[in-house]
């Protein structure tokens, strides 16, 4: 059996695996797609000490670094189920069962898509999901934020300080964000909020040039010219396969303590799949290292 089995090959998983292997313990890593969300990212400018890089490049160096160590890499394998008897038993989609004394889940998350024409076509060409990452690319331009919940309104406030103008589109007749965020939003001069509207299409040629939405009351169609659209309708953690095994919050995020420990002894979690407050590469890596050190601590005590 493994001593540490990492499930997920993004920044959190890569970091957890390396920290475990450096303790000289038997380590394995299972990943559906090694690199994770980083593979879908164009430019990365906030991975501190690396001024600027591209997602696929960073993903390749993650893998290269993991390969420096004696780590069993099981790429293109999807975990299906986890059980604990004497040991943890991780069942893969292909039927194999892997055994381990401890497990670190780092299966990440995915942005919820709005599912309108133009969204897939213009991903990374004006359609963005992360204001901390991509906000500065739209400096001085006009953008829209889809979603009037906390993350949408936080994004709009954040972007308003960088871009020329922000249009917020909310499906419901009222914003769902906290009162204090709404107050701050409405105090800004370069933000327009439109409520009770349904996004119909993100338009563009080479990149985004506008957004079309329908007023749900009048059924009138409107078009706004802009350079970017931030989709902020939630992040879905990849944790369904753990349903009933470990405690998750309302959003499906795995609940962890300061060391990354979950409600199941010997089971740790790190990165975007947890209830940590912020989702970034550098934070995921830190949280993977944290969980891995905690797993080592658990192993020497058990
Ligand atoms: P992920 O990167 O999501 O990795 C999860 C891993 O688990 C993957 O290998 C996946 O294949 C695997 N997996 C999932 N389910 C299973 C399963 N059942 N079995 C086996 N494996 C599974 N952050 C920044 O700091 N800077 C940026 O500029 C930036 N830009 C971004 C741009 C985009 C378009 C996106 C989508 C995100 C961006 N982020 C950025 C956020 C950053 O990518 C994430 O916070 C980070 O990748 C999270 O790392 P993670 O390891 O927790 O999860």
Automatic annotation (TrEMBL):
Known function? Transfer of electrons from NADH to the respiratory chain. The immediate electron acceptor for the enzyme is believed to be ubiquinone.
As given in the record, the signal peptide range reads none
Q: What is the lineage of its organism?
A: Bacteria, Bacillati, Bacillota, Bacilli, Bacillales
Parent-protein residues present: 208 to 509 of 509
- Recorded protein name is NADH dehydrogenase
What this protein catalyses is:
a ubiquinone + NADH + 5 H(+)(in) = a ubiquinol + NAD(+) + 4 H(+)(out)
Q: Report one GO cellular component.
A: protein-containing complex
Names of the cofactor(s): FAD
Which Enzyme Commission numbers does its entry carry?
A: 7.1.1.2
Q: How is the cofactor bound?
A: Binds 1 FAD per subunit.
